[in-house]
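Q: Hi! First time doing this. I have a protein sequence and I read that you can turn it into a structure. Is that right? Here it is:
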Amino acid sequence: MNTIKSFKDLIVWQKSIILVKEVYTLLQKLPTDERFGLISQMRRSAVSIPSNIAEGSKRGTSKDYLQFLRIANGSCAELETQLVITKELYGVTVGEVDELLIEVQKMLQSIIKTLSTET
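A: Yes, that's right. Below is the predicted 3D structure, encoded as structure tokens:
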């Protein structure tokens, strides 16, 4: 049986780190005049996902952890919206990033659902 010793052992955290890297790569395709607008906002949204998963896991209670997972899930929704805007404004293909984001969202929703029934 695998025991989770750290947030780094969580698949959802690992996938969200990959998501951050993919978002940063995608953002290199945007014009530099977006660096203080959409680029900055998307970086913050993406980084917020694994950061909140990690912080919540260290809070000590299921209730606190659940709250931070919900914040991470909210950041996913922000990023999803920003990907739509990026696609609409710049015609950038966001398929791979979008697929990974959906995977992270599904994982978060599953953990949230499980923890919600326990608290």
